[in-house]
Amino acid sequence: MATELLCLHRPISLTHKLFRNPLPKVIQATPLTLKLRCSVSTENVSFTETETETETRRSANYEPNSWDYDYLLSSDTDESIEVYKDKAKKLEAEVRREINNEKAEFLTLLELIDNVQRLGLGYRFESDIRRALDRFVSSGGFDAWADLCNAFLQEAKWLYNKSTPTFDDYFGNAWKSSSGPLQLVFAYFAVVQNIKKEEIENLQKYHDIISRPSHIFRLCNDLASASAEIARGETANSVSCYMRTKGISEELATESVMNLIDETWKKMNKEKLGGSLFAKPFVETAINLARQSHCTYHNGDAHTSPDELTRKRVLSVITEPILPFER
């Protein structure tokens, strides 16, 4: 676009001088050329504008659309509808057969169920999916629920017999009764998008990324409730078992349990920094379980005996919104 401006300059004196002040020319690669001339006087103002026509842009050479009117009408015949119904029945029978295949690997079965649910077709296979998952659980695929119940049963036996186990016997059972392994097993399927066979196998074996956060969960719980449980006569606790095994006082046993928590954190951080075979979202979830344990049991047993601070925390997270910071 080229532009020139003609204007009338009025100096301080009464003498009028007409002069031209050309502006720099700006050239752009555009098919439109605009020339603007402006003349200014004390009597009138006039503008003239001219445009040159440009060549219109050619449309793309798209292929003809196969979904024309006649084609759409041809699919609405009775014969075509019956063909589609037969195909749908065959596909549904094939999917049902794969879901009920007792020899199928769990990972393959889980991916199939996930795809069916994502397609919005889970309602057609509800009973088949339920039987498949029950079959896997009953075959010992995941023992998290059974391990939790057995751990509760063992603690009930110790309480009933009023016996104090050794620290190793107690802790080998107690980290499972903390419910940490069960929570993380379910969390894995909630946060991981691409499930891998290697991860499933290590999940069943309670990999360190599952056991160590559960250790911290149990130790923090026992530290917060030790004094109250000892006063009630309960014998199964990390502090009381450590006192009996080592023959030391409650204060020294408490300090030893705190040192165990620190050592477990070091191992867990090494697992995170060194690279884990599990997906990063699940690793973060497992570590957050340990962090949550410190938060819950920092000022006492906020689970068994919640105080006003615990109530405020729950309300701030669930009920009351977080107000924006005002300066």
What's the gist of this structure?
A hairpin with a 4-residue loop joins β3 (34-40) and β4 (45-51).
Topology:
Layout (H helix, E strand, L loop, with lengths): L5 E4 L7 E4 L13 E7 L4 E7 L17 H6 L3 H22 L6 H13 L7 H13 L5 H18 L5 H11 L2 H12 L5 H8 L3 H25 L5 H9 L3 H25 L5 H18 L10 H12 L8
Antiparallel strand pairs: 1-2, 3-4
Helix pairs in contact: 5-6, 6-9, 7-9, 7-12, 9-11, 9-12, 10-11
Structure description:
The chain has three domains: 6-51, no CATH class; 77-138; 144-314, Orthogonal Bundle (Farnesyl Diphosphate Synthase), CATH 1.10.600.10. The model is unreliable at 1-36 and 38-53 (pLDDT under 50). The protein is mainly α. The protein has helices at 69-74, 78-99, 106-118, 126-138, 144-161, 167-177, 180-191, 197-204, 208-232, 238-246, 250-274, 280-297, 308-319, and strands spanning 6-9, 17-20, 34-40, 45-51. The longest helix has 25 residues, at 208-232. The radius of gyration is 38 Å and the shape is elongated. The two termini are 51 Å apart. Helix 5 crosses helix 6, helix 6 (167-177) crosses helix 9 (208-232) and helix 7 (180-191) runs antiparallel to helix 9. It contains 13 helices and four strands. Helix content is 59%, strand content 7%. The chain has a two-stranded antiparallel ribbon. Residues 74-105 form a coiled coil. This is Terpene synthase N-terminal domain-containing protein. One of its GO terms (biological process) is terpenoid biosynthetic process.
